[in-house]
Design a protein that fits this description.
378 residues; TIM Barrel; 17 helices
């Protein structure tokens, strides 16, 4: 984690509202499967499934569908926002096909993602789990702010946008080094006692912070980027801490922010004003080309399983631990169906061992986010 001087320097930079998307750490919890450069081919065998084929998993004591829906890029951050009606239709179709877990945050838009989720899920609010996040001071330009009074203020605003009287899972979006995590956990505990929040989560927190928070208020879920090509949580103790403490793990970026679909190449252009990936090392033309062996490997496995690369990427995550719940997302019903088809892909222990053996031979090029955003990742 960066020292306080570095973080304070970032917080006091006076980030403008216009530059909010590209200059704050908004990429953290979210959505991975994107509208541009998506797989156009579908695999009928794996795209046809009944609603009851989506099983459930536990995030702590919170029961959710084994795949959730990341709602960020419908409204922001991976290109221009989708048409509102299209976004509503996609989220409702997800529910109709067994998705019971929807992930958003106040900073997505900002605000517009929560509004969309609230409207889309209102007809069946009591049958779904809604996750949202706090931790940024949006009027102040996106600085970190997890002070108790701020949390109590923004939860009321999120509840209104979400058209609900409770948030099922409320994450701290980024750890605020200026506020003890025990104070954050204590504040969320108060909100839980009041019935405004049902479960507590952390995003991009270290194993140490997770343990400290859990000692005050049980943590139900931790959200961090995790995929076949981004596996730092396996080495830094975060995944192990979740397993030890009975905490669920929610990977954002489960298909590498779209890269693992196999439809992004060195010629793919990302709008620097509307697409966060334009500033990420891993999405430079050079690193996209350098990481092609990873995509080639996944494509080979996909061919053997009559699946798409995105489905293999999601199936791989589902096979890692029973408490892992990926949250892919898209504005496209076709791609939604493709994602959900991942539950029909069964990777055997020998499949997983073979993938790990081959992946160990491949170097991943480029950091997962830009330097400024990594400053607020523990």
């Amino acid at each position: 984690m960066e020292n306080k001087d570095q973080v304070n320097e970032q917080e006091n930079a006076g980030i403008s509202r216009r530059g909010f998307i590209t200059k704050t750490a908004l990429a953290g919890a979210g959505l991975t499967v994107i509208p541009l450069s998506w797989a156009t081919a579908s695999v009928q065998e794996n795209n046809s499934f009944a609603k009851d084929k989506l099983k459930t998993r536990k995030l702590g004591k919170l029961q959710v569908s084994e795949l959730g829906s990341g709602c960020m890029s419908i409204s922001a951050n991976y290109g221009p926002a989708a048409d509102k009606n299209q976004g509503i239709k996609t989220l409702r179709t997800a529910y109709e096909n067994g998705v019971l877990f929807f992930d958003t945050a106040e900073v997505y838009g900002p605000y517009t993602s929560e509004e969309l989720v609230g409207e889309a899920l209102a007809p069946f609010r009591d049958k779904v789990v809604i996750a949202s996040k706090f931790g940024f001071d949006i009027p102040a330009g996106g600085t970190l702010n997890s002070r108790p009074e701020h949390i109590k203020k923004v939860v009321e605003e999120s509840l209104k946008r979400l058209k609900t009287d409770r948030i099922d899972l409320y994450y701290q979006h980024r750890v605020d080094p200026n506020v003890p995590i025990e104070d954050v956990a204590g504040t969320v505990k108060e909100l839980i006692q009041q019935g405004k929040v049902l479960h507590f989560g952390l995003s991009e927190a270290s194993a140490k912070t997770i343990r400290l928070a859990h000692g005050v208020m049980p943590v139900s879920a931790v959200q961090t980027e995790y995929s076949i090509m981004e596996r730092s949580v396996e080495q830094n103790g975060v995944l192990a801490a979740c397993e030890e403490l009975g905490i669920g793990f929610v990977p954002w970026g489960p298909v590498g922010m779209g890269y693992l679909t196999g439809k992004i190449n060195a010629n793919t252009k990302f709008d620097p004003k509307k697409d966060l990936r334009s500033g990420f090392e891993r999405f430079s033309a050079e690193n996209i080309a350098a990481n092609q062996p990873i995509v080639d490997l996944i494509k080979q496995f996909a061919a053997k399983k009559n699946a798409t690369p995105a489905q293999i990427s999601l199936a791989w995550l589902l096979a890692q631990k029973p408490f892992i719940v990926p949250i892919p997302g898209t504005r496209s019903i076709e791609h939604l169906t493709e994602n959900l088809g991942a539950v029909n892909i069964k990777l055997s222990s020998s499949d997983l061992a073979e993938l790990d053996t081959e992946l160990a031979k491949i170097k991943v090029h480029g950091g997962r986010m830009n330097a400024l955003q990594m400053k607020v990742v523990e």
